[in-house]
Amino acid sequence: MPVQRGITASWIWAALLLGLLGNATANATAKRMEPVDYVSPNIGGIGQLLTATVPYVQTPHGMARIAPITTPGITDRYLADKIYGFPAGPAMLMISTGKLSTQPKDYASTFDHDFETTTPYYYAADLQSWGIKAEVTATQTAAYYRFVLPAGSPAHLVLSMEDGAELKIVGDSAVEGSEKVGGTVAQLSAKDGETREYFYAEFSKPFRHYQTWQKDALSQIGTQTGDHIGFVAEEPGAGGDGIEVRVGLSYISTEQAQKNLKREMAGRSFEQVKEQTRELWNKRLGAVEIDGGSEQQRTIFYTALYRSLGRMTDITEDGKYFSGYDHKVHESNGHDFYVDDGLWDTYRSLHPLQLLLEAPRQEDMIRSYLRMYEQSGWLPSFPSAAGEQAVMIGHHAAAYILDAYLKGYRNFDVEEAYQAIRKNETQATMLPWKRGPLTTLDHVYFDKGFFPALAAGEIETVPQVTGERRQAVSVTLETSYDDWCTAQLAKALGKQDDYLYFMKLAHNYRNVFDSKIDFMAPKSADGRWVAHFDPKLGGGQGGRDYFTEMNSWTYTFHVQHDVAGLIQLMGGRDSFNSKLDQLFVEQYGTSKYQYLSQFPDSTGLVGLYAQGNEPSFHIPYLYDFSGQPWKTQRRVRQLMDIWYGDGPLGIPGDEDGGETSSWYVLSAMGFYPVCPGSPVYEIGSPIFAKISIRMANGKEFTIIANHVSAQNKYIQSAQLNGTKLDKPWFTHAAIANGGSLVLEMGDKPNKAWGSAPEEAPPSMSPADAGVAASGGS
Description:
The termini are far apart. The chain is globular, with a radius of gyration of 28 Å. A hairpin with a 5-residue loop joins strand 31 and strand 32 (700-706). The chain is of the alpha+beta class. Helix content is 29%, strand content 21%.
């Protein structure tokens, strides 16, 4: 029927129009997404094997780092069944409509991720056991909580503390206190030798009734000290009532905690503080603008960038800071004081990424290291608020400081930095997880050129080797790299004798390469190779007799400062590339279960390459040195696609405070620093069509990947700042004042691009010294 057909047609046209309008609206909504809106802090909340991530609410580098405290013992935080409370500095804050108790577990509540909001600036969850909505936002040194109660349910507001704590009721609506911060190498018992964390908590309503406790005894006492102490106040509550708690934090005093709270939150509502922190994150994340890619890739990218901007932690308060290195309060003199770092890993990509985005802050971080040196006598390897942690191996402050210096960032005392580095390199023991003077093992390194391992069957007799084993091959390799860094800074400062001395030590990596087996291998103090060494499974748990958390398949490639020299040791490019190819397909030599039980840090496996642990991170980029950059392009894409996701299993291994995420950020942008301290970047394969990086000086560096896609991962040609680029690397100087890298991408490798020996990135050894010219197949 004609009329019916007309009606049907009109409905079809209307539907089409509505569909188009709907798509336009959806597209407009998508375009309105800002960088902070992509961040998903629950990514990685289930660990691949070891440590899960934490969905922190904080400002970039903020001292207040807030996340729900979940069920003790459940290390995969995303799978925890209960929220036990929220941080209030050293105290745990919780609210409950349940019974009165002196046990924090009795106030815990079930929660459900489907009724949870996680962002960098705001967290909210339904405390389902009590029918309470809990919300938190944060500033630099303070946290702001808001709780909404159900109708007619009296609530208990609780603050609990565990060890060496102090708690005091202040007036009718505030509580203050402190707790000793542990974990230093030499924990001092005297009060003036402690590091304490202080808090001042201010409640939006006067206490109707309160009690305190110690152990299991409730009382009306307004002050408690000791272990397992707490405070509980009763709030009558009416339907929809909100209770707010604002908490100031300090390492100086409770008075300073109160000042911090007033300075950052006085006169501001919860929503105002939340929006302020949101805008702060959006500005920092917006320093990298991306076009193209999928929603999932943008989520992974901006979440990784958020994690890359959390550390180091700025603990400056009102122009002052407390140092755990001399237990004194100092004036900051216009340069903030930073702690919480792990240089064994963060020198690799976290600090280089931050240097691109916030160079002046990095200079203050280096100044912080130098202050720690002045106050303690050593450059630390893992500075915390409580002092040196002496974690892992190596003295990688050398790499960190050199990298900033050679990239032109020098707003610190370079001469003092050199003297501090030199002291660490010549007077501090290389033993893992130790801080102290040289041992007999260290002298073997200086005298014979390698750190000695125990011979097969030999019993440890060196008294300083406690807790951690020698990790001798890794110590040799990482120390020779630190020596190279020290040599480069000595050269820059005109210290020729030191330069020659440390350059000799920088070649020590060669002394642990066994050409008979083509692997880095352990030697005993007499210079003999350790008998019966297995490059795959040797070294016991974590390989720690000889290596650091990994095996020789990984550490054989751990010569960042002299890849060309390593290629020579392996017999040239073809042999090197065959070995590198094999790494990505080599299997475990036992069951995967047994392999990971021995090497639990080796997660994110592709063959024996482990994306889950930092000594691997530079390895996919080594093909840039050996004439096969297209393999770097393929591998980095594979690693990003397989081992980084947008769900709770989305991190390949331990996050390590942003280091694992920083690898993704740099790789997704298309480049990576194989050797921090050499001011160059090796090129990989970007995943976005355009990346604009706004550096701290206001200049912009843009990477354009024409025709990029999942299949178009291979570079066909390149231009840097308008000039043809045939090398798979570029210098920092070329982009320091802005510029552009334009890559033409395709679905087939261009095996001619960047493959000639003279096009390889710089190394300590000349690239063409005895190196086969063939790029292989």
